Amino acid sequence: MKRLAILGSTGSIGKSALEVAAMHPHRFDVVVLAAATSADLLFDQILRFHPELAVVIDEPTANRLETMIHDYGAGRIKTRIAFGDDGYDQAASHGGVDTVLLAMVGAAGLPPALAAIDAGKQIALANKETLVMAGDLVMERAQKKGIRILPVDSEHSAIFQCLAGNCQKDFKKVFLTASGGPFRSTPA
Question: What would the DSSP string read from start to end of 67-96?
Answer without folding.
Answer: HHHHHHHGGG---EEEEHHHHHHHHHH-TT
